[in-house]
Amino acid sequence: MRIVADNLACRRSERLIFANLSFTLADGQALVVTGRNGAGKSSLLAILAARLRPEAGNVRVEGAGEAPLTELVNFVGHRDGLKSALTAEENLAFARAILGRAALTPKEALARVGLEHAARLPVAYLSAGQRRRVGLARLFVSARPVWLLDEPTSALDAASQEALGVAMRDHLAAGGLIIAATHAPLGLDGAATLRIERPVLAADAGEAA
Amino acid sequence: MTRALAALLVRDLKLAGRIGGSGALGLGFFVMLVTVVPFALGPDLNLLARIGPAILWLAAVLATLIGLDRLFQADEEDGSLDLLMHAEAPLELIVVVKGFAHWLTTGLPLALCAPFLGLLIALTPEAMLAVSATLLVGTPALTFIGGVGAALTATMRRGGLLLSVLVLPLMVPTLIFGVSAANAATGGTIPFLTPFLILIALSLLAIVIGTVAAAAALRHGS
C-alpha cells in the first residue's frame, strides 16, 4: 500500500502553518518530519490522523482495499490516550479491542517496553516516561500497518529509545509504514526526511519591506 | 466491531465506578436537591405531593446536566478521543455506546432511586411508580440531547456553562411531557398514556438525532 499526500496546506485560526506539502510513502518506508517548534509537525500528523481538516490538498491511501486511513493508523501523540484510573493492562486491552487486528496481548506488549511489573498499577501512579512507554506499547497490541508518532522519544531514557528504534526497524522490515515527527534522531537508516519550513506569507513580505 | 463497542461500554462503566469517576455525582446531586426541598417548602404534605413529580423531574434534569460536560471532554483531554476516532466501528456507534454508558450510570440510577425519594415529598404509591416510569423512559432523551452539547464543547476548557445554555432549552419538551405524564397518572383530565407515549417518542428521537449530531460535532470539532 501507499500513502500519498498531495499539496497539503494547514491553516489554524487565520494563520497559514504550511502549504504545498507533498509526499509519497510505500510499504517498509519511514518518513521523519522535522522543523522548528510550531512549524506544524503535530498539525501534519493531526491531518494524517483525520483529526484536523487540511485547508487544501488531500491524503489518500492506495492499495489497501476498502479501509480508510483512520482504520490503518496507530497514532501515539502528545497526549498519551491513557485513562489514569485504569491499570496499564486495562488501558492496553481496551486499545486492543478498539483498534482491532489483535497482535500481542497487553502483558506481552508491556513486556516489550519493559513494564511487565507495572501491568496492574493504575496509570496515574506511573512516571512520565513510564506512561509514554505504556502509550507506545499500544503500537504492539494491534497489527495496524501505519504508525503515526508525535515526538515518540520524549521523556524516554536512553535504553527505551534504543528499544523503540529496534521496534520501528522491525515494523519497517515487516512491511509497515512509519511517519514520525521528532527533534531527536530515531536511528532509522534510509528514512526520508520532510522538513517543514514556514511559508513566505504575503503579509510577512510586506512587513519586511 | 462488537468487541470494540463492548470494550468501550465496559471501560466507561469502570471509569464511572473508580475514584474520581462521575458515577455518583449525578445521583448525589439528585438526592441532595430532593432532600432539601421539604425543608425549604415546609411540612405542607398536600403541596409537596402536588409538586412532587415536578421536583423530581427538575432535579433529574439538573443532575443529568451536572456531569455531562465530561462526556467527551475527558476523552478529548487525554487523547483517548483520537483512539476512538480510529476505531474500526463508525463514530456514531461509539457515540451511542458512550451515551448508553452515561445513561446507565446517571439516568438509570435516578429512575431507580426516585421512589425512595418520593417518600420524602409525600408522593402516593401510584405517583412514585409513575415518576419512576417516566424517568426511566425520559432520561435517555436528556442524555442524548445533552450529548450534542457535550460534543460541541468537548475542546473547551470550561464548557460547562455553555453546554447548559445550549441544551437546557432543548430539554424543556422532555421535562414538560415527563411531568405531565407523572401527574396524569394520579388524576387529571388526560389519560396517562398520551404524554407517556410522547415522552418515549422524544427519547427515541433524541437517541437518533442526538447521536448523528454529536458524531458530526466531534468530527468537525478539532
UniProtKB/TrEMBL annotation, chain A:
One of its GO terms (molecular function) is ATP binding. The keyword rRNA-binding does not apply. Keywords: ATP-binding, Cytochrome c-type biogenesis, Membrane, Nucleotide-binding, Translocase, Transport. PROSITE patterns: ABC_TRANSPORTER_1 (PS00211), ABC_TRANSPORTER_2 (PS50893). Residues 3-208 form the ABC transporter domain. Signal peptide: none annotated. SUPFAM superfamilies: P-loop containing nucleoside triphosphate hydrolases (SSF52540). It holds the Pfam family ABC_tran. PANTHER family: ABC TRANSPORTER I FAMILY MEMBER 1 (PTHR43499:SF1). NCBIfam families: ccmA. Belongs to the ABC transporter superfamily. This is Heme ABC exporter ATP-binding protein CcmA. It comes from Chelatococcus albus. The gene is ccmA.
Automatic annotation (TrEMBL), chain B:
It comes from the Bacteria. The chain crosses the membrane at residues 21-41, 47-68, 100-123, 129-154, 161-184, 196-218. It is found in: Cell inner membrane. It holds the Pfam family CcmB. The lineage of its organism: Bacteria, Pseudomonadati, Pseudomonadota, Alphaproteobacteria, Hyphomicrobiales. Keywords: Cell inner membrane, Cell membrane, Cytochrome c-type biogenesis, Membrane, Transmembrane, Transmembrane helix, Transport. Required for the export of heme to the periplasm for the biogenesis of c-type cytochromes. InterPro entries: Cyt_c_biogenesis_CcmB (IPR003544), Cyt_c_CcmB_bac (IPR026031). This is Heme exporter protein B. The keyword Ion transport does not apply. The keyword Ribosomal protein does not apply. Belongs to the CcmB/CycW/HelB family. It is a multi-pass membrane protein.
